[in-house]
Amino acid sequence: MKRELCSAGYGGQCPPDETYVRVYFLQQGSTIIEAVKFFGHYTAKGWLNPNGHRLKNWKRLAWTWIFNRQLFC
Question: Which of 7, 8, 48, 58 is most buried by its number of CB atoms within 10 A?
Fold first, then answer.
């Protein structure tokens, strides 16, 4: 079941493939440059949250990243 969710595009596959991140950012009206920054940032952090646990949904995190960039830039 979990494998089906990952392949269905719900964001549960962490770390995600960079291509999926780029597509998601473009779908949300952002840029590939922001997608690359996001991917690089969380790759460097090992795809862990501040508590040291593996992220469960990268799309939720990406949406927050995009929202904050649009709000503060």
Answer: 58
Which tokens sit at 73? 């830039």
pTM: 0.80
Largest CA distance in the chain: 40
Q: Is 54 left (phi over 0), alpha (psi -120 to 50) or beta?
A: beta
Question: What's the whole-number mean pLDDT along residues 32-60?
Answer: 93
Alpha helices in 1-73 (DSSP H): 2-7, 18-27, 32-44, 58-72
Q: Are 24 and 68 in contact (CB under 8 A)?
A: no
Note the pLDDT of residue 23.
96
**What would the two tokens of residue 41 be?**
């940032």
Residue 2 is inside which H or E element, if any? helix 2-7
Size (the chain), residues: 73
Distance CA 15, CA 48 (A): 10
